[in-house]
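[Q] Does anyone have a clean structure-token version of this?
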Amino acid sequence: MKLIPIYAWNKGIHIFESKQEKFIKKPWAQGIILMACVIVAMLLANLPFTRDGYKEVLETTISIKIGSLEFPGDLSVEKFINDILMVVFFFTVGLEIKREMAHGELCSRQKAIMPVIAAFGGVLVPALIYTVVNKGTISAGGWGIPTATDIAFAVGILSILGNKVPISLKVFLTALAIADDLLAILVVALFYGGSINLVLLGIAVALIILVLILNKLGEKRVIFYIIPGAAIWVLFYYSGIHATMSGVVMAFLVPMTPRYTREYYYHKRDRYRHLLDEYDSIEEGSGFPNGPQRHVLRQLSKTSRNCIGMSYRLENALGVWVNFIIMPIFALANAGVTIPSTEYFNVFNFDPALGSVSMGIFLGLLLGKPIGITLASWIAVKAKIGTMPAQSGWKMLFAVACLGGIGFTMSIFVDTLSFGDHPQVAQQLRDMGKVAVLMGSLCAGILGSVLVNIFADKKNEQTRNA
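[A] Here you go.
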């Protein structure tokens, strides 16, 4: 997968990495930290001596005052996390999707068709199950909650399972999760925004077109994308389109091509090498590098940096921040659900008026995801528009598809946007939804892991007997 080339390149210097750097590079590291944050958030929200303080911190208002102007005025700590920090998360997700579409697992029809079709199935069937359970009730609007797959947890579990899962299925699930992220983004943009202010949206579109023109003209300086990106976020925030969508839009506008060509780099590198030798005799006794040589090295570093596309640089720079700071903060702020009674854990409770957001989410993640992914894949193979991942069978594909039911990040995010039409019960439904997401994701992860082990052991036994 995408980590393998990086690991291979770093193999020779792996011994020089610190324990923290080695931990961060583990595919399961983010999942462990997120799970720890979920547990901490649940404790903070339910322990008598922390419950009130936890809510007060999240409800604390943040504002920026410039003279008599106050912006944005109604921004709480929780909204700051969900509307600003999550913009960075969606921006990074957009960069990853863009990279995969350009050079990765979604870069060609042959590579993309199977996981994309499977992702559609993995969105439609959970949404259908949720809708059937909650049709005609107040909870009906939450159909988008069980449609997402959390790539960090899913890939983390696959890494723990090791060689029991064929490499082709690991690539399949990763590509599926990326396509799933794109579909989840479209769901949020189309169905979970507010009322639209067409004037502000029109200005945002005009600004997006301007940035696109700059991109086409070959502009590669970061400043020409950061400032418009901030303006687009503000316009989205006040236009009714969820502000996080501005991150996705800007990710697709950021240029991937580098500022300098390979030939230009080699020319400058040779020039700088010559200057380093020439400046050896200056400031004798000061050691290497002396003053002029430090300037040359800084210029060489700047040139090297600009030989990597802005999109790749930003994805690499933001990755650690998103995975190990922003996402844990999101989990701490959103997974803390106050549990007033044990009925929150009974996902099969149903009320004729409220419906059952818990049942819809739980069944959508645990059953809808693997059924939808497997059924869509089967249709694609039978219709000869997709091919089965190499060295895998339908049983193992179904087991891996169960891991697609680990919703977590995107599911909780969609949950925070749901039920706004019913403010009197919205928070209760959202809290029950979050508990159902956690329970459904946990059960999906356990079921997928158990099935992978069972099918892998049977396959090994058949191989030995043969």
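[Q] Thanks! Anything notable?
[A] The CA atoms of residues 305 and 313 lie 8 Å apart.
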